[in-house]
Design brief:
The chain is about 20% helix and about 30% strand. The protein is of the alpha+beta class. The termini are far apart.
């Protein structure tokens, strides 16, 4: 009889432990508490705070030689744009090279070909990408949408 009670006690203990652990994990997940877990990814900003980046214009729509997207850092912290992406509605993706955009700074992403500088980046495209009504989307390195712009 003692052995049977011990087994029942162990089973009951395991069941209660599993229920308590499950409840804790459920409520922890629902409150949105996230931890770093030791990842080496520093995130998209160089300083803490909200990411305030905006696509302020698309110029030269439909003309490869002059077509460009203008992006501005409206925040108070420098943004590390390395690995960020611009996406068009046809599935085209431009991935930012190593680039830090300082507060108030502007960068232009040209659809055509050219040599990248700190203020001008080139998609190296052979045809114009943007047309009226199209949605331009800017995503960070975690594929979180950070800015949108509807081409007028």
């Amino acid at each position: 009889m003692t052995r049977r009670r011990l087994v029942l006690y162990l089973l009951l203990n395991a069941l209660v432990s599993a229920l308590v652990t499950g409840a804790i994990l459920f409520f922890y997940d629902r409150t949105g508490q996230k931890t770093d877990c030791g990842t080496s990814d520093p995130g998209p900003t160089l300083a803490s705070g909200d990411i305030k980046v905006e696509i302020i214009n698309v110029t030269g729509t439909g003309v490869l030689a002059s077509e460009a997207i203008i992006i501005q850092n409206k925040g108070e912290a420098a943004l590390l744009l390395t690995g960020w992406m611009l996406k068009d509605s046809q599935g085209g993706i431009f991935t930012f090279p190593q680039l830090t955009l300082y507060p108030g700074g502007i960068v232009q992403v040209h659809t055509g070909t050219g040599t990248n500088t700190a203020a001008d980046l080139y998609w190296q495209g052979s045809v114009a990408v943007w047309k009226s009504g199209e949605l331009v989307a800017l995503y960070d390195i975690h594929s979180i949408a950070r800015a949108f712009y509807r081409v007028p």
